[in-house]
Amino acid sequence: MKFAKDGVPVIVATLFLALVITAIGWLLNNNFSILLYLAALFIAGFTLYFFRDPDRNIPSGDYILAPADGKVISIDVVREENYLESGARQITIFLSLGNVHVNRYPVSGKVEHVAYFPGKYLVAWHPKASALNERAEFGIRHHSGLKIFYRQITGYVARRIVFYTREGEDVKAGERFGLMKFGSRMDILVPENMDILVKEGDRTIGGETILAHLDDNATSPV
Asked: What is the Rg, in whole angstroms, of the alpha carbon atoms belonging to the chain?
């Protein structure tokens, strides 16, 4: 099994803690020891499970892909001023603790916008989380001229965003670009006239689930 590279320090520290707890249980050698063994097993197992980084079967073709595993909790019409400077349809994906938290580029193209904002830690599904929580936001221009905007958002539990994206880079849909630790949210904004292939309640797989097709009828406003 592969693990997220940014999770390795946490994995090492957690496995060391689990080893210490196991050693204490062995030294006590009493009825309480079994509880310590179970606690150590749970801590190690959960950490390894959380930071798993499975390979994905990335569809070939021009698509907008889900940037994260999770559940679509809303699809709304919004206005985005930092990059799109237009109205858009926002697909919000909520990541629970059980989801893979490695994030992937939703579309191929050139990165034109990267920004990070410190902020609050409202629950990820709060309507104002997109504007008030700690977040990182990105804008990519597809070779067709289409502009796609997306953002990583921390939640009440998630307190750390990691991303490798830099302005001016050429990126490919489905490639890894970052990680959100311990529950969070991802917003992806597309042109208002684009046909969305998912609906509220659908489950997404980062780098595999197709959110929309890129075609001549879905163009960014000039």
From this structure: 20
User: Are the beta carbons of 138 and 107 closer than 8 angstroms?
Assistant: no
Q: Active site includes 184?
A: yes
d(CA 174, CA 62): 11
CA distance 108 to 96: 26
Report the pLDDT value the prediction gives residue 220, as an integer from 0 to 100. Answer: 53
Specify whether the CB–CB gap between 75 and 189 falls below 8 A.
no
Given a cut of 60, whether residue 222 has pLDDT beyond it is no
- Coil/strand/helix, residue 47: helix
Q: Which candidate in 108, 130, 184, 220 is catalytic? A: 184
Contacts of 105 (CB under 8 A, 6+ apart): 65, 67, 140, 171, 172, 173, 174, 175, 177
Residue with tokens 């994206």: 165
Q: Domain coordinates of the chain in residue numbers?
A: 5-50, 63-213
Does the predicted model carry a pTM greater than 0.70? yes
C-beta separation of 103 from 176 below 8 A: yes
CA distance 189 to 184: 17
CATH class of 63-213: mainly beta
